[in-house]
UniProtKB/TrEMBL annotation:
Residues 137-163 have a biased composition (Gly residues). Residues 1-24 form the signal peptide. Residues 100-163 are annotated as: Disordered. This is Mucin-associated surface protein.
Amino acid sequence: MTSALRAAASAAVLTVALLLSACAGPAPGLAATAARDMQETVVTIAQHAAAGDPAAAVAELDALQQRLDAALAADDITADRAALVQRSIDLVRADLEGVLAENATPAPPATEDAGTGSTSDDPATDDGDTTDDSGKGNSGNGNSGNDGKDGNGNGKGNGKGND
């Protein structure tokens, strides 16, 4: 698991802990049965997030959303308490979807060799040489300076490293 995935999973678990406190019961504004059902789902979300399985955590988060909606429709939760739980669900969802997006980022495509236009992983054109031979080179002897004399140090030497 990458460090970014671990950090995101940790953030999701922390947010789930906040969500857990929002679903904890018995408390005013939340029926005991609804609190227990939602709290069990929150625990499952936290377990999936901690295990590095954000897709399963999002699926459980969807189930929690349905439980919240049903509890609100049945008057098992007050509007204020439902809003608190909803904010927590939204925070956890944002964290988990960020992890999913990071994991879904495709690998960069193979690069092309500048001189051939073929990809570097094409075995038909690979000569086994690992040096970069795609750049421009100087196959000539260079400029020997004026009248065959040594160069003057202005970049017009003999190309042999000694001006």
